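Chapter summary example.
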Amino acid sequence: MCILIHHPKDACFSSEQLRDFYYKNSDGFGAIVNHGDDRGVVVYKAVGSMKEIEDLYYDKVACYEAIIHFRMKTHGDIDMENCHPYTVIDNDLWLAHNGILSYGNKENPKMSDTWHYIKDFIKPMLEQTPDALANPYIRGYIGSHIGSSNKFGLMDSKGNVFIINKHAGVTYDGIWYSNTYAWTPWKFGYGEAPKSYYAGSGHSMYPTTTTGSQTHSSGKKHHYGSSKSWQLWNDADDVEAWEAEGYVSPSTLADEKSKDSYQRYQQALEFDRKASSQSNKHRRNKKKLDNKGKGNAARQARTMTEAQKVAKAKANAGQVTSPFVSTEVLARIIRSCYNAMMTEDYHGVVRWVSENPMKCATLLYELYGDEGPNSKWSSEVISDRVATDAEWGADAIVDMWAENEELLFEMADISKPNSSKGIHSHV
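The structure predicted for these 427 residues follows.
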């Protein structure tokens, strides 16, 4: 998960928009900026707090044409060296990337997949043919080679901008974005909110029109009945009428619930950032794999209840692998998820989570489940988050596949494809 942006001259993001980009992609910020004056084209990078990145943006980037990148690590370390953009040709060309390249980073695991692709493909090509990027056919070839779920943004020292796979992104108010999954466009008036946003949140899914002091969904009153009490419900948004009868109007309650929900959402984001750094994720996954060892199994057995021992015995017999489902059912869930992401990339995962919240919760619990007193991965927490926020569930599924692909293939008896596609080249 990353977000790549072509930021035109005179554009300026609000502080709220910057925070939205940052909270989902907080592993580094970078920009190639064309100042249009004696400074020319300059690259700025930061790995730090929201305030540091916000100050850098307003001081050096806002109102200038730029290629902007907010990073969520998938390969390589979290450091300035892996922070986009990368130098392709010294003092002449820079590149930022959104996606995961099937090329990987086996040669140097400390460096990202983007760094490896530049070193082995882009740089040698430009050394042989310096004007290659000016040729739309070559740009199209690069786009086909990396797949449409990957996007490159490049700028040279003259300020020329090249977007690879631009057609696979979106443009709002003259600003191009590489995706809609690594930020929340509907919060800023672009597109529609997902259905999960409305579930239990007090938000209306229907357009509203205002007449005088009253607001009616789709401009119409409801028709519940003709008695005095039902008349209130016929015009549920008439705040004054409800207050005159000594009640709080449903719309007021909905607004309060919405504010409370948003506040809890922000608190959850902050908790996630503090409690689950990338290193914690790797330690958690490593612990999952280590738990298969005999030493840990012996330590666990000493603290197991009788019911847990019975469950474990069934698991060892191939009957159950989790508190919820059999081995066969779990394999079907994994294959269902895999088919969705291979068919529709990230959007397929969001749809799959929306339509199958219990399957998603079961799969996440199998990989990350922890019933500790302060765990954010208990079955209750996972099911609640998935049921109310499909995008959160999709993001967790994305991370799960990126970190545990080999294990998931083995669990579901899936033959590994020759080249990575779908979700792994989309995040």
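To summarize the output: The longest strand covers residues 29-34.
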